Task: inverse folding
């Protein structure tokens, strides 16, 4: 985004998702926990590349830290090439676009010391649970509209935007489950999964299959068919896991 253009308004539901990820830090590790949370915002694509993070005052208030500590966090992210400060009327801290498909060497670097199988299993447990909860309890009109809009966004996504919008659809389900703890845990595990997915190519055939699974999943949730919702999500997670295993072996 040009620094002379006004930043785009947040997409519907994005503020609620930010509230799930950005929470007051606990005493003693304010810098580290704030860094972890803002990294999640970037890795989950909650603020797209080229767009501006919330203002410093808002970020500091959400995290319960001083603006001095926040600026130290943002400096680290800037040094890592993840964000950049911009001055002027439409200034602020902007997320830098992320490179596509970082490659096999980067993938292997990222998985060093990471229990990929445990991450994928935990993701499946959370996702299947969230889908089942949403279907069992039903969604109100606002929740159903949010889920339909998130699904439509994935269908309309250009290739470079697909994974970010896919993430937002899954985060919406986690948040609509009615369990804040589940949503927080899912955001953390999804950030890790995205770090792996960013290293492998986008495969059009796989995305077409994922979209059919997304549609079946949303239909099951809105139809309050918990068994079908869990089945659709379990199959969807298995597909992603198989793809990652294929590139890892």
Result:
């Amino acid at each position: 985004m040009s620094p002379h253009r006004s930043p785009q308004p947040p997409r519907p539901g994005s503020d609620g998702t930010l509230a799930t990820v950005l929470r007051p830090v606990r005493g003693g590790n304010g810098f580290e926990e704030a860094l972890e949370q803002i990294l999640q915002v970037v890795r989950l694509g909650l603020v797209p590349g080229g767009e501006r993070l919330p203002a410093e005052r808002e970020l500091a208030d959400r995290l319960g830290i001083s603006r001095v500590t926040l600026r130290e966090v943002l400096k680290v992210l800037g040094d890592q090439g993840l964000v950049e400060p911009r001055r002027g009327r439409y200034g602020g801290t902007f997320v830098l676009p992320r490179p596509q498909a970082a490659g096999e060497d980067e993938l292997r670097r990222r998985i060093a010391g990471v229990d990929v199988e445990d991450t994928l299993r935990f993701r499946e447990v959370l996702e299947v649970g969230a889908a089942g909860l949403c279907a069992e309890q039903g969604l109100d009109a606002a929740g159903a509209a949010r889920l339909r809009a998130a699904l439509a966004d994935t269908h309309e996504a250009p290739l470079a935007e697909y994974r970010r919008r896919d993430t937002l659809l899954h985060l919406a389900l986690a948040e609509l489950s009615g369990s804040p703890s589940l949503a927080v845990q899912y955001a953390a595990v999804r950030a890790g999964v995205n770090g792996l997915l960013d290293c492998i190519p986008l495969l059009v055939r796989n995305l077409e299959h994922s979209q059919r699974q997304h549609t079946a999943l949303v239909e099951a949730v809105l139809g309050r068919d918990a068994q079908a919702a869990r089945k659709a999500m379990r199959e969807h997670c298995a597909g992603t896991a198989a793809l990652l295993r294929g590139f890892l072996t």
Summary: Confidence is low (pLDDT under 50) at residues 1-13. The CA atoms of residues 90 and 212 lie 40 Å apart. Residues 226-248 form the longest helix (23 residues). The radius of gyration is 18 Å.
